């Protein structure tokens, strides 16, 4: 079974600084997708960034980028120029190709310090 | 805007009294999911519909049932809520299937917070 591990229950960063959230996963599959979802307090979960395992190039979305290391099964999220609105719970998630199920990590609560 | 809508946002029920949570979507996605999320935990998948096909997770209690009368709507029925069922329930949708246009992204509703008294 696939598992997703987020070893940092909580992180904090000064506003405008850069922070990296860690995620590792375990799978025997070669085709899969990885995601970072953001869940602000009392608000809905939204997609931050998505990576297809077959792509070597790391995904980027504005201030958000990932470091995808397929051999190491690592998928970290870097947030640059942190803003107050980035404060949220961040979930790393895995999806096997051809399967509709998402497997979530336990989440990292990110606090932005003004 | 196209979206996933959950009603109500807050639901209070009594121990053992059946309750139904609703989800609708305007994305025309063929897959709909129900998750249970307890405080500061990851969402736990209860079941999902792929089109009309119901897919139950092995560890989902029999107390939880679901209905999908059409593409747009999906319901979560809790037949006899217990105190342990108090949680946030999240509905999500995605466009299932293969092809380059399928981005495998799940879109979530804002959730229904269920309290059991």
Verbal overview:
The complex is a heterodimer of chains A (114) and B (117). Chain A is built from no helices and 12 strands. Chain A is mainly β. In chain A, strands 2, 5, 6, 10, 11 and 12 form a 6-stranded mixed beta sheet that branches. In chain A, a hairpin with a 6-residue loop joins strand 5 (32-39) and strand 6 (46-52). Chain B has no helices and 11 strands. Chain B has strands spanning 4-7, 10-13, 19-25, 31-37, 44-50, 53-56, 64-67, 73-78, 87-94, 107-108, 112-116. In chain B, a hairpin with a 5-residue loop joins strand 7 and strand 8 (73-78). Classes of the chains: A mainly beta (114), B mainly beta (117). The interface between A and B is medium-sized, with 21 and 25 residues.
- Percent strand of chain A: over 45%
Choose one word for the global shape of chain A.
globular
What is the N-to-C succession of helices and strands of chain B? EEEEEEEEEEE
**What's the quaternary structure here?**
heterodimer
Order of helices and strands of chain A: EEEEEEEEEEEE
Please tally the β strands of chain B and state the result.
11
If interface size is counted as residues with C-beta under 8 Å from the partner's C-beta, which chains form the largest one?
A-B, 21 and 25 residues
Helix proportion of residues of chain A, in percent? under 10%
The average pLDDT value of chain B, as a whole number, equals: 92
Instruction: Give unreliable regions of chain A as ranges.
Output: none
Structural class of chain B: mainly beta
**Structural class by sheet pairing and helices of chain A:** mainly beta
Overall shape of chain B = globular
Taking the sheet with the most strands of chain B, its summary is: 7 strands, mixed
Overall pLDDT metric of chain A = 94
How much of the sequence lies in strands of chain B comes to over 45%
Low-confidence spans of chain B: none
The whole-angstrom Rg of chain A is 14 Å
Count, helices of chain B = 0
The helicity of chain B comes to under 10%
Total beta-strand segments of chain A:
12
